[in-house]
Write a structure and sequence with these properties.
By secondary structure, this protein is an alpha+beta fold. A hairpin with a 4-residue loop joins strand 27 and strand 28.
Length: about 650
């Protein structure tokens, strides 16, 4: 008799077999990869014992792209073919990144779908391809350490990365053949690294200031559950901005500004200045002053020369505005989370830029407690990602840890009048699925266009369009009779899919929202701020639009009824009065006057009440002919109407 091999559903047939997973922190300035070995998460180093991989890719004339320190060293000699801080370009449109042209040496070109691309020695490359080269290098590092191929990875992203930026990160991993188990937010990974998942119930703040992004997240931890109460951040704010301030200060003190290229700075001079600025910034984290010697001549003969002392006090004066912006974001996020500062139990510092003494000082002062810095702020995110990867790959089946991240902005659908009906509100924990019923606007409508939007304003024009798709095959019915259920699903990575189904026929249409590029962090924060600042005006605009839509609906319905049997049921005088009320409402509907439209609607309803009752009596009599009480059934109608 042959034996059957048995395994638990979804489990490996060799449960004792260890799988290999890694956590990757794909950073703006540096990237890292970590694994769990003997129950402990460790960050992997290269052959020179360097753990930090500079997030820089150089494209030579011949040969494979060069990644890391060797690429960084070529940034001055060949800046246009050496791409740094590519994370700031991920998932963005050409118009979002071309402003970097004044601050970077890159040559951008536009692609048909709106994605930005860079011109290099090896042709045109996208930010996704550049990121893929960094991931490829980290993947090779982990394979060498493990002696085996990776079964899966967890990649961290800023909490404020939107759908397009997260998808771009997944695409970069796909290019190099990595199996992405999950994208997790960097603040959540930091909390995991500190082992807070097993700590007592508490509220913690994750202050994440990296090379190119700033995130602030408020988490509640209880019995292994990580619940993100709120997230915030600031646009492309980080160490790169500190470097630019220092570089500008240095440039202003050069003896001969003209020789350095004037306002159109030579790319080599520009990269040299940025590298010097970064070195000065890093030194000032441990000393009070740095002696600076600038002496550089580019291939174009543009040159800079200056020597002097750079004081920490000068540096702190330059960056104080940036630090204040981070604290403003903290204040907004605490308000969103409905948490007082006194309730914060711990503050975790993440990102290399949190080494700046002024940053630590101001954060401690604001939160009224000393922040946690016992784990290297550069490594803490990669360590947390590795711990999560080890769980997801199945090496720790007894783990009870659960991650509950949140949506940064509300998701909804356009309804008549250009209004937004929010399906999933901002700061809802993910993964999540929400459904809502809609109906048709016109008689005989057999198709419906669904417009998915993101944002917290009341009007579609003030939100961001994510996708449009069409539901066809709706049975021809009177307006309002169809039942269309629209379902929004957001997975654990924060990626959205939308389904629309007509209930009686089960005709269905589906779309995975994958825009070609996404919102900048600035856009997200601006949208949240706008939703707060314009809340009163938005409510007024929504009421106005709803009245205008209702007026149009009532005008069309009344005119159709008059054409059907108005002459049979009404006298000429009654028809004339009703037509006058319709004409008056038609004129009033075009005005931006909510009360005037409402009053005219009430007037038309009064004028048509007698006519409506007569029509209803006729309909009831027709429906009752030949029917028993048991055969009569009431049906409910959805109330929201989408565009046709």
């Amino acid at each position: 008799m042959s034996l059957m091999q048995i395994a638990e559903p979804g489990q490996s047939q060799k449960p004792h077999q260890k799988k290999f997973a890694a956590g990757i922190d794909l950073g703006t300035t540096h990237s890292l990869v970590a694994i769990v070995r003997s129950g402990e998460a460790i960050v992997l180093a290269d052959h020179t014992e360097q753990k930090l991989l500079p997030s820089v890719v150089h494209y030579p004339l011949v040969g494979a792209p060069i990644v890391g320190k060797a690429a960084y060293d070529m940034a001055v000699s060949d800046p246009q073919n050496t791409i740094a801080s590519v994370k700031r370009m991920m998932g963005r449109g050409i118009e979002d990144v071309t402003h970097l042209g004044a601050q970077s040496p890159y040559r951008f070109t536009d692609k048909r779908d709106g994605m930005p691309e860079l011109i290099t020695n090896q042709g045109i490359v996208s930010p996704v391809q550049v990121s893929a080269e960094i991931l490829r290098c980290l993947s090779c590092r982990s394979k060498q350490a493990l002696g085996a191929e990776l079964d899966g990875v967890v990649i961290t992203v800023p909490a404020y990365f939107d759908d397009a930026q997260r998808q771009a990160t997944r695409d970069a991993a796909k290019i190099v053949g990595l199996n992405v188990l999950r994208l997790i937010n960097e603040p959540t990974a930091a909390a995991l690294a500190y082992g807070l998942d097993s700590a007592k119930e508490q509220v913690i703040a994750i202050f994440d200031l990296g090379g190119g992004t700033f995130d602030i997240s408020i988490l509640r931890l209880h019995k292994g559950i990580f619940e993100v109460l709120a997230t915030g951040g600031d646009s492309a704010l980080g160490g790169d901005d500190f470097d630019r301030e220092v570089a500008s200060w240095l440039l202003a003190r050069c003896h001969d500004r003209k020789s350095s290229g004037g306002d159109n700075l030579d790319p080599q001079v520009q990269r040299y200045l940025f590298n010097q600025a970064r070195s000065i910034k890093e030194q000032l984290s441990s000393v009070d002053s740095v002696q600076v010697e600038l002496d550089f001549t580019a291939k174009s003969n543009a040159s800079i020369k200056w020597s002097g002392t750079f004081l920490r006090t000068d540096f702190e004066s330059m960056i104080s505005g940036f630090v204040k912006r981070t604290l403003m974001s903290c204040r907004r996020t605490l308000k969103d989370a409905e948490i007082d500062i006194e309730e914060i139990g711990e503050v975790i510092m993440v990102g290399g830029s949190t080494r700046v003494p002024l940053v630590r000082e101001k954060v401690a002062e604001y939160f009224q407690c000393e922040p946690m810095v016992s784990i290297n702020p550069d490594e803490v995110v990669a360590i947390g990602a590795a711990l999560q990867a080890d769980i997801l790959i199945g090496n720790r089946p007894d783990s009870e840890m659960l991650l509950l991240d949140v949506l940064p902005l509300s998701l909804g659908i356009e309804t008549m009048g250009g209004l937004v009906e929010k399906i999933i509100p901002r700061n809802t924990p993910i993964p999540v699925s929400r459904a809502q019923d809609f109906t048709t606007y016109q008689d005989g409508q057999t198709a419906m266009k669904l417009h998915v939007v993101q944002g917290d304003r009341e009007l579609v024009a003030d939100c961001r369009s994510l996708a449009e798709f069409k539901l066809s095959g709706i049975p021809a019915m009177v307006a309002g009779a169809a039942h269309i259920r629209v379902t929004f699903q957001v997975d654990a990575d924060g990626l959205l899919s939308v389904t629309a189904m007509e209930q009686s026929t089960e005709v269905e249409s589906h779309i995975v929202v994958k825009p070609s590029y996404g919102l900048t962090d600035d856009d997200i924060i601006s949208m949240i701020n706008d939703s707060m600042q314009h809340a009163e005006d938005d409510v007024h605009q929504r009421r106005l639009k709803e009245q205008q839509v209702e007026a149009k609906r009532l005008i069309e319905a009344t005119r159709a009824a008059l054409a059907d049997n108005g002459s049979d049921l009404l006298t000429e005088a009654e028809q004339g009065a009703l037509n006058d009320a319709l004409a008056e409402l038609e004129l009033t509907r075009l005005k931006d006057d909510y009360l005037a439209i409402k009053n005219q609607l009430d007037e038309l309803n009064k004028q048509s009440e007698f006519f409506a009752s007569k029509r209803m009596n006729i309909s009831i009599n027709e429906a009752l002919v030949g029917s028993t009480i048991d055969e009569l059934a009431a049906s409910s109608r959805p109330t929201r109407q989408t565009q046709d």
